[in-house]
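Hey, resending since the last one bounced:
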Amino acid sequence: MSVGGNVVADEEVDAVSSGALEKSADDVNQDVGIAAVDGPAELETTETSIGEELFRFKVVAPNADPFELQLNSSEMFHEVSQVLLDRESTCHRTCFSLHLDGKRLDNFTEIRSVEDVKDGATLHVVEDPYTLREVRVHIRHLRELLLRNGTEFSFEAANALDGLSLTYLPSLNLFEKRGEGRLIELPPDYIQPGSKERPLGPLIQSPAKPLLPFINLSLSSYNPPIGPRKLKGDLLYIDVETVEKRRVHITSSVKGFYVNASTDEIFRPTPSTQLKTVYHSLVELLSAVSTGFRKAYSALIRRRVDKNVLERLPTPYPVTSWFATVPEFTQDGLRAEETTQPHRVGYEDQLPGQLRDWNEELQTTHEMSRNTIQERIIRDRSVFKIHSDFVSAALKGATAVVDGNVVSINPADDPKTHMFLWNDIFFSLGFDVKDHYKDIGGDAAAQAGTAADLQGVRIYSALDDPRLCTLGMAVIDYKGYRVTAQSIIPGILEKDQEQSVVYGSIDFGKTVTTSDAYEKLLSKTVDELKILPHEVITKDKDGKESTVMLYTSYETKGIVGNDSRTYVLDLLRTMPPDVNYMEEPTLSDNVKEMGYPRKFPHKLTTLRQELVEAFTDARYMRFIQVAAMHVKECKFSESLEANDAEREETAVSDNQLPSEQEALKIVDEAIPSKEAAAANQKSLEVIAKAAAQVGSLSDKVFDIRFNPDCFAPNVQHAPTEDLEKQRKILIDAGEFLLITQIPSFIDECMNHVVTPIDGECLCELMHSKGINVRYLGQLLKDKRVDKNSYLRIIISSEIVLRSLKHIIRKILQDVSSDQTGPAVAHLLNAFLGSVTFVVKEEKANKKTKRGSGGRRGGESKWADMSTKALWSSICSEADSYYGFKFDLATADEMFEAFGVQKVSLLRRLCKIMGIQLQAKDYQLEKKPLPFSDDDILNMYPIFRHKNPWARDAKNLYVRAQAETSHGRLREAYDYVAESVNLMTSVYGALHSELGQAMRLLARLAYLLGEPTEALSLQYKATLISERCNGIDHALTIVEYINLAHFAFANLYITAALKLLYRARYLLLLVHGENHPLMAQIDGNLGTVLYAVQEYDMAVKFLTAADVLSTAQGESKRLKAALLSHMMARAHSCRGDFRAALTAEKETYAIYLKLFGAKHERTRESGDCLKHLTQQAVEFQKRMHEAAKGNEVHKLLPLQAPPPMLPAVLEVLNALNGIIIISFPAATAQADAPATNSMPNTAQSDSSVPALQEEALD
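The structure tokens again:
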């Protein structure tokens, strides 16, 4: 089945970026509407889904076989170049042009714009003359072709170099040919139930076998060419040391490459007498002079071609691994030249002689037309591409700033106040500059302010107003420093702040300015952002007071740049403050009982936008219910006024209100429209009463908005502002967070509506509910988070690790660069090992280099940190930030009391701190000092940024989910297929949202009877998740489970087992066995092992799944019944009929409770019980007969029927939430948390961790 009507090879990605802006040489050869054909094929010109033609071209390249290519008429010829760079026979060529009928084609010309273009035309690849830029591009491309398919690939992928990232899935060799008699691989001991071993070695695949095409390739010391040689066409000189130990001197000229007669001592640029041929490609030349190169090159290119295209493409954002192997480093002159020049910004060869104007690019793409869907696709693609490049540049600049490789623009000031300019990006450090945050928390407030500012940028960018501009922004944490990277407003560095700001305040609210242009723009944003416009009093230079209307917080500043664009910045107070951490407001008794208001290290605590939306929606629904109640009362009274005196003083309780559906129906019938309400006095009175009951700011209509400055002590509001009512709304919102949102979130987690796997997933889910991370302690105090709950493990771990992050961050700021590795190793030993004392003098015998060893020169306080002192600091920080006290003496006591794994803590700590460890097993439970200095390979930046998305694609995705929930699977499939097409047009082939969409598409394809297509799509979704999220990310685990399911459905039994083993291993590493998702994995494993007649191992996993399900509160649900039934089958096949009867009785009891005695499932279980009873009786008779007559052969168990694959697959469907079994509505409530969808429809996977199908981001 093709996606979007385009023919694409099955083994290639279905769609990638259509006409992306500037793709690298390793980009994909399969775009939307492009299909490479190895041989002649009958490809007819067709119409695409949007009415565009498809053309077939024959491509003829030098020294290569012709091939056919299919292009969409809206594509550019640049796509042909990308295909050539990806094909085995032409991938080494970079300097060429395309010719059609003897005419040179512009790469960035759309096919439909070329006159007389015909289906079946021939495109000729013509070799072009070289320039110095093209030579450097060619050499870099050669290095990427060779070395990134060799020994250094794993290390460079682990460090996210040039968009690379690790994968593990291809190493499993899943889809080998199915052969008869193949042995089933049983799980290794370390992933079997009950195992305490947690090895780290299997986390990443072993590096590929080294293949060296040459010993070294570098630029010659004879560079640059002298004047006479330049006039003869010389561009660059290259030295190559071949594997045959021969040193070859090569001249790169305008015509190509040739071997010159130079030696190490003498420069002779003339062609060598032994080989005078000029080759247009360096690969062709090296193949001619070195047999070893020719053999290695062929093997490396085959290795490259054998990779899935998704393995080779760059990710849009860096994905660095916390765990990496260290290759044996070899000489590489090109690597040395490029990476040891900190002044290079990475774009010299693409944009010679100039820097990118990031602000201009970001704002130009932001202003692009968006009237048609095609225009919106082009705009979204441009915005995404520029933003992705900006983030990459910001990361490189931030690391250079912290490493001291960028000169400050204010070097005479305090180092904490230094600011930097690099690659036209402005960098500042997250410290309190000039005491700006002195009264609200100092450096802690400064760090929080950058994160809040980024949230404000996201919020205003989402409004998508082309006239309201925000800065490009990224927040980077690296080596303990927080660096803010921002694009530069034109002219802002040339003016004083007072001259630049035309809206807002620059003196903490004492004086406020405004302009008509900003009032007009910002007045259109307040309704969507739920911000209340408010009047404040300001004074001019003469002390004269006047009022100014603000549509934002007073901190927000409006600046008109030299480009005449209107910018808003300093958006840290966009959202209203969190009153639960403020001393001024008077909170309710319920909130006070919870320990609020509570002190916090800073006063920049704000509510999240998700909470503002949820609170407003909840108040609006209550408004509707109250209005419906008054409408009902009006029907039973002669006049509305008769009840006024009685109702006004009486508070409305929840049990008096009608249900939501009933209220909506009543109000819709009584007040069908605003016009009808305005014409009816009774309707107006009903609305006014309902508004008053819900605390509306307006006495006449529903109006819930927030004044972000209503608690600001330095802002003087106008007398017309009702501050009491405005503050009451904020107090109610804080109470709503504690009383409604947090309990609701805990209920969802405990009922497995959502199941976070690690701290990252937990925080994302909390944010989606509008709960800030500072409420982690409140979650852990909830009584429903009991001692055996998986949620307790995750929350407690996250509190400890985030507290430790604050401590390490402060320590690393005082550590010199040469002590970073030892300091990190020491702190890891102090946390996960046992550091009881510090040796004050160097040990005489230095047998080992432990991070907690003797002092070194230049050490700071990190060397004095013992395990006891570190745990004390963690407890203090946890109480200060999260309001939770660990009443335990040591960290080991905490690990044991809360059931936390050390390996899980190590993984999560490395990911939040940006620590990269050497790939090996650390004896965390056995050694007091498990880490040495050499185990710390690197520290990498952790970044946050504004994440643009494909709007139309997201809307289609949401619509597909709605269609799925209503059982219209074909319509849902069409919507999500089109969403995938649009996403690939915007994002390219790799993006986490695209992976989620492909997963849904795979599930729908499976439901529609296309298991082969489902397997192909799910394989791509899994590979995308590995590349974009990480090989051990929670979503990757879920993708493995789905892929195993579809592999089994296609009879790839061995592949299904490998995938489930991998999923179980990852979950053990990330969390441990006590997790609801582990029950699903064990159920799948037990079922598949039962299908292949490995009954003993099947019983082991099924028993573990049943124990976990019971512990997690699922003992009376449908999945528990299925597990019990599979256990009964497995026990019966083993001849253990007593255990089989016990298990089947549990199944029957659950079915009887859920469905009733007459349901088909219940009757089948009853028949199975009868059969097992007969089998048990027969087997008992045999035992007696054998005992009497000594007939040993009768003791053999009865032959059980072999497992039937359709029946096994049906169980897997139910376990994985793919197909939901129907049952009477009267019994639906008993199993509501487990079955949440209609019959025969795809259900949102209740085991999905941080992903919710309702939200792509």
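The longest helix spans residues 373-402.

Sorry for the duplicate.
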